[in-house]
Design brief:
- By secondary structure, the protein is of the alpha+beta class.
- The protein folds into 3 domains: 3-161 and 458-468, Triger factor/SurA peptide-binding fold (Orthogonal Bundle); 191-303, Chitinase A, domain 3, CATH 3.10.50; 325-430, Roll (Chitinase A, domain 3).
- It is 48% helix and 17% strand.
- The chain contains 16 helices and 12 strands.
- It has helices spanning 6-18, 35-43, 56-68, 76-99, 106-119, 124-133, 138-158, 167-182, 214-231, 237-247, 266-272, 309-318, 344-359, 365-372, 394-401, 433-463, and strands spanning 45-49, 52-55, 199-209, 252-259, 279-280, 285-287, 290-301, 325-336, 383-387, 412-414, 417-430, 466-468.
- The longest helix is centred in the last third of the chain and has 31 residues, at 433-463.
Amino acid sequence: MRRNRFNQALAAMILAGAAFMSQFAFAQDSSKTSGDSKIRNIDGVAAVVNTGYVTRKEIDDRIAALQKQGTKLPDPVTLRKTILERLIIEKIQLQNAAQEGVVVSSKELDKIIADIAAKNKLTLAELKVKIAATGSSYERYRQMLHDDVVISRYREREVEGKIKISDAEIDNFITDRNRAVAGGGKPTRSTPAAKGEPEEIDVAQIFIPADAGAGAQADAKRKAESLLREARGDVDFLQLGAMAAKENPKIKFQEMGYRTPDRLPQLFYEAIRNTGGGQVANAVVKSPAGYHVLKVLDRRALVAGAPEPQQAAAQETSSTPQNIMVTQTLSRHILLRSRAGLTDQDAERRLAGYRDQVRAKTADFSELAKKYSEDGSAANGGDLGWMGPGDLVPEFDQAMNRLQIGEVSNPVKSEFGWHLIQVLERREAQLTVEKQRQFARAAIRERKFEQAYQDWLRELRDTATVKIINADDPAASPR
């Protein structure tokens, strides 16, 4: 569960969750096909991607897998275009990874499959039977795992490896947090940049996703505008986001941290270009994914001047490492790991049943965890011990932080599977100097990762040669 196990668990558990989805269709060796079959292959191509291509059958297989999961899907035309774009991005990553020498040996792949079988309490033979029951073959399953691991390793090297965090950033983070603690948690205003001078902007957002369809779009817009009106009042913006997310788990909120204008999404910067610190954007921002309510928490000069003499002593005191206090949470959970035969709907339904039993006091959370939880904490009744910010994966951490003491969450999904969470106690704790810097580095990396990842994907897509041929028709349809 801890973040320092993230990279290892990410590959294994994402693969376990995806293991039983239909496999992609792969291109045939052109040296072994006749001229006629080449023509038929091209006729089934949806897009040419650099020196490879995405077939219409690949799109069909991906849609079929989503339909089997019972996922709510947009209209067919939008769905096919969305799936095609995802497959294009995956194809580009695999091509680039091959050029960069990112490989997964057969021995490594065998070990990953053995680990997945063990986690699902299956022998290798039983796993093969489960795979066959999905309509796929073991060979295709191995290829799918191979591609997922290659993409994961390539992404880790290209994105994680390029996120640079300086000692100065860590020092500034610690200082800012200490100032907030000294000021009772109230935000402080930085020295604004002079006109024309470079600046950094700290922006927070509440994101309301919008499904396809006029009705869903209108509902999302109404909710966003309602939140915007509330945000203009005397309320804590992030607390408002937390409350909205508690009502609707699809709603997300985040503080994006200090960024220069070029590191903000262009839509966001245009919306808050003339918005002062502590103010909310004039209108909601519409993006392809939904609606965004934005607030500028602070604006500051990129290169701040020396502090005034009367502030020096206070700043020196407030930046003392031992002054950093964090909220630690004692919680426990029930984990249902992603595995063959357990759909997302089944996992949610089971955990919702356990939740209702605990709320009705007809069952004890600890006893349910001992009996049903599928991780090492089960023997201790699901107890995870005291956890601070950054110790847990984001989905779990955010859901846990929204709970009151004694409260039980709704089912929560992470890369590990599905969780039911109960908060037992909270406390304020001081961080050691080493822990402070670890926490600061993890928090800064978390802020930087999403933007770096999206920038990286855009760069991959923009530099690739892609030609869309026919994405609209299923593979079985004539051109």
